[in-house]
Amino acid sequence: MTTLAEHLDRYLAVRRALGYRLEGHSRVLASFVDDLEANGQSSVTVTSALAFASAAATDRRAAAQLSMVRRFAVYLSAFDASTEIPPVNLGPGDGGRSRPYVYSPKEVSALLGAARALRPERWAASVTTLIGLMAATGIRSGEAYRLDRDQVDLDTGLLAVMHSKFGKSRQLPLHPTTVAALRRYAALRDRSVEPTQPAFFVTASGTRITPATAGRTFRRLLAATSIAAPPGRRAPRLYDLRHRFAVVTLLDWHRDGVDVQRQLPALSAYLGHLSPANTYWYLEAVPELMAVVAERLARCWEGQP
Q1: Residue 247: partners with Cβ closer than 8 Å, 6 or more residues away
Q2: Residues contacting 42, CB < 8 A, separation 6+
Q3: CA–CA separation, 165 vs 39, rounded Å?
Q4: How far is CA 191 from CA 158, 184, 204, in A?
């Protein structure tokens, strides 16, 4: 008889083979399986899943853990008919994607200014350039952390994002101003980092930036600039710079009268989305964008350009 731990190993192997990174899933699901086995349970139940998730420190974390358990339960149900799959929206905070925080141009400038004031100089340059690159290209924060020096081609103005979400890679053409900013950072980085260090973005000690290090610093920048979300909303994140890029691009297209339906596949490919449907999510998530679309439709109905 296959144990829950063996099923978990196979489940993780299958999903990774499909291109999922599953960062954090191994630890969370292993802990869940340990709890089940410690209580003498050989299958997943809704009660056990909810009890496990409810022990998380925050509602958002509980929702994330419940989502992980739910997917594992779906897999298990193919082998064990007694498996119970926790329904969606079962626990607090389990209502799907949160509305992103869209930074204003003034807020992005303030973040860059606060980042430049960091010390030492190399860390200030790393954080400033990281924020600027995410705002200018919309790459995921994890993609930025994983960038290697040889993936930033300043001669051709191309950024190679390798083996990202779902195992996909893509090349991003960069604006000349972005290339110039990366060139300035690369010159400082190359002078002060060991030649054997492959990472493009490095910490003050010359190692690759990690999510934890970047997250702590970004929270300091938010506090220094007094940037905060409205009451009841999730706190702004570094990752929201990606959302800003997508939203600003769509806003500009609609305001300029661009055929968004025709251009959307290009934006989706640039962002690394599987399909334009993932990009269209911003239409519903950001009221400002929906308002511009509604205004444009109204002009069309009235026969205006």
Answers
A1: 100, 102, 282, 286, 288, 289
A2: 4, 36
A3: 36
A4: 22, 11, 13
Phi and psi angles of residue 160, each rounded to the nearest 5 degrees, phi first: -100, 115
Are β-strands 152-153 and 158-161 bridged in parallel, bridged antiparallel, or unpaired?
antiparallel
Structure tokens at 183: 């060139």
Q: Do the Cβ atoms of 124 and 116 come closer than 8 Å?
A: yes
Task: Give every strand in the sheet of 152-153, ordered side by side.
Answer: 152-153, 158-161, 170-173
195-212 tens-digit pLDDT: 999 999 999 999 999 999
Please enumerate in sequence order all residues whose Cβ is within 8 A of that of 300, keeping only pairs 6 or more positions apart, or say none.
none
pTM, full prediction? 0.70
Taken in order 263, 267, 268, 270, the sign of the CA dihedral is: positive
Report the percent of the chain where pLDDT is more than 70. 86
Q: Residue ranges of the chain with pLDDT lower than 50?
A: none
Domains of the chain as residue ranges with CATH: 4-76 (no CATH), 105-225 (1.10.443.10), 240-301 (no CATH)
- Model confidence over 233-268: pLDDT tens digits? 889 999 999 989 988 888 888 778 888 778 888 888
